[in-house]
Structure formats: C-alpha cells, structure tokens
Specification:
Strand content: under 5%
Distance between the termini: 35 Å
Helix content: 55-70%
Order of helices and strands: HHHHHHHHHHHHHHHH
Number of domains: 1
Structural class: mainly alpha
Oligomer: single chain
Largest sheet: none
Length: 353
C-alpha cells in the first residue's frame, strides 16, 4: 500500500493503481492452480510425513487460500474505496468573491422561482424521474426515511471529527465479505447448525439441497460475472476508440510497473521472507503445503474485483474502461506466475530437506 501511494504521489499514477498493487486474485486463480498441481502430482512432494496424502495436502491448501481470500476481500472493500479516492479535490470557491451578475433579471427570477439540482431538474421533475437507484417504496415511506436520514446526519455532525473518523474506519470493515465469513464460521463450527446446513438430507441436512447448494452456486458465479463485466467495459472502450472518442487512457509505464510488482517483486519478497521464517524460527507449523501457499499468496494478477470496487466508489466511465484494459493485460500475462510457482516449490522442498 505504501509503495502504491508513493508511486501515485511521485509519478502521478492513477488512483486505481494503489488497490491494483495491494489486492490480487485470491480465490479463483489460486484454487485452479492448486488443483492443477495436484493433478500433476506435485503436491506429493509437499506432504508432512509418509502418513500424509496429496488429497489431505490439497484440502489444507484450499483452506489456506480461502482464509486468505476472506481477509483479502474484507480489506478490499474496507480500504479499497479510500484508496480509489483521488485526494486531489477541486479548490473550494473563494467565499469572499462576489457572485457575477451576467444573467438578466428575468433569468435570475426564474432560477429562484424554480431551482434545479445538478442534473438540471426541478423538485417536481425529480419526483417524477426514475432510475436504477429510485426507491420502490410508497412516497410517504420514502419521505419519512429521508427525514430520519437528515436527522441522523445532523446528530452525526455533532460528534467530534476525530471520533467520527475512528467510527467510520471501523464501520468500513463491517462489509459483506467479513459478515459472510463470520456467518460461515458460525455455521461450520456449531455442530447442530453444521449438520442441518451441510450434511446430506438423509443425515438431517434439511437446508443442504435447496438453500446451501443454491447459495454455493450463486457464490461460484461471482468470479465469472466479474470477467463478464470486464469484457463488457473493454468492448465499450474499443467501440469508443473506433469512434475516436476518449476510452480510458492507460499508460504503458503504469501497466509495466504494476505487473513487475505483482509477478516479480512480490514473489521474491514472499519467498525470501517465508524461507527465512520457516527455516530459522518456529513461528510456522511444520507443513510444506503451508509454506508453499504463503509464498504464493501475494503473487498473481490484480483482482477482477477492481471493477466492482470502482463501481462502488462511483468512478467515472473512463476510469472503469482504463481498469478493464489493465485487467485484460494482467490476465493475458498471468502465465508468468509459473516462475513464482517453481521458486516457491524449490524453496519449500529446501526447507523440508
């Protein structure tokens, strides 16, 4: 994160380069990679003892990667919106400057009689306007909610700014990935709940067939849907390029720098650090699979969640297109991860002896 902020400030990199450096693909790509290694018989070399099996090593590796995914997703949606902020807000208007009177008195009277918002709509027109964020509740309920929101915002502003910042930071970590992980832990670690949610229907799993399986299928669609979103944004960008319109500029220096960090620098650092810790301390368990996974965790292309993060943060269309272009390039060169895989495997075997 510090490296990304340095590049952003010193070399004027775009704001999205910071989360691109911080967060990589921690779910789909690592799980597919570890399954491919198991098929190739490589995990046989990473067993703890003769009684250990490659299937047990595969199960442990998946568990390690899923824990990493939970932490990564929580941090992505907690810190990501702050990292995407450009921090270069426009200058505030001079309060001492006098307003210009270039408009005629008739136009001014009309403006004051029918004020408009930033979209150019009056209050009456705004009530009739509908978009994807328009409420479906009755107008009376929507107005009461708006009144309650205004009152709570007024009370919120009475809290000292330092306390507000602390509360906002803590609240940002209460996001969907973290809540999902906590609920999953509760269901998995509580025997009665584990039985009714995950056991077979014949063994008392009353929710397994219709609820657990459905939620699992929906969750597995997330990674694929993110790639569909990236493809749609990339297609829109290419169409705008053909028309000669602005389509989100991505500097080659930005792409090369981020890819160097993600595919070369992070693997070198992670392999070196984990090798020293595992071989000279007792901080880690005597599990070659754990060492191998820890060495690989920071390696790989940036997360496709960057597109979802940009949408959540309210990024403009050009920035979304630029992110889509970068993600396409990053995944096109993702086979470079093979060097990190070989290095991690050799280092783990060297520690194992």
């Amino acid at each position: 994160m510090a490296l990304g902020m340095l590049l952003k400030r010193a070399f004027k990199f775009p704001a999205w380069c910071v989360p691109a450096i911080c967060f990589n693909n921690t779910t789909a790509l690592p799980l597919l990679l570890i399954q491919a290694l198991d098929t190739a018989g490589i995990l046989t070399n990473l067993t703890m003892s003769e009684s250990d099996t490659p299937s047990a090593a595969l199960s442990r590796a998946k568990s390690y990667f899923l824990v990493s995914s939970m932490v990564g997703n929580s941090l992505t949606f907690a810190l990501g919106p702050r990292l995407l902020d450009d921090e270069e807000a426009p200058d505030k208007p001079d309060e001492n400057s006098k307003p210009s009177h270039t408009h005629s008195s008739t136009e001014s009277d009309e403006e004051y009689a029918h004020p408009t918002n930033s979209a150019g709509r009056t209050a009456e027109e705004e009530e009739e306007y509908s978009n994807e964020t328009s409420t479906l509740l009755p107008r009376s309920v929507a107005r009461s909610r708006s009144t309650a929101a205004k009152k709570s915002k007024k009370e919120w502003k009475k809290i000292p700014i330092k306390i507000r910042n602390v509360i906002s930071t803590l609240y940002s970590f209460i996001n969907a990935p973290l809540l999902g992980a906590l609920i999953g832990s509760l269901l998995g670690l509580t025997p009665p709940l584990h039985r009714i949610f995950f056991a077979s229907p014949s063994s008392g799993g009353i929710f397994k067939a219709w609820l657990t399986t459905s939620l699992k299928n929906i969750g597995e669609l997330f990674a694929a849907l993110q790639l569909v979103v990236v493809g749609a944004k990339l297609s829109s960008s290419l169409l705008r390029m053909k028309k000669g319109e602005s389509s989100g500029k991505v500097s080659s220096l930005v792409v090369l720098t981020i890819c160097f960090i993600r595919f070369i620098l992070w693997p070198i650092i992670s392999i070196g650090v984990i090798y020293l810790i595992a071989s000279h301390t007792g901080w880690l368990d005597n599990d070659p699979t754990l060492w191998f996974v820890l060495m690989l965790m920071p390696t790989g292309p940036s997360a496709t969640k960057l597109t979802a993060l940009a949408d959540v943060s309210g990024a403009d269309e050009e920035e979304n297109m630029a992110i889509a272009k970068f993600i396409t390039v990053a995944y096109a060169i993702s086979p470079l991860i093979c060097f990190a895989v070989v290095g991690s495997l050799k280092a783990s075997l060297a520690i194992k002896g």
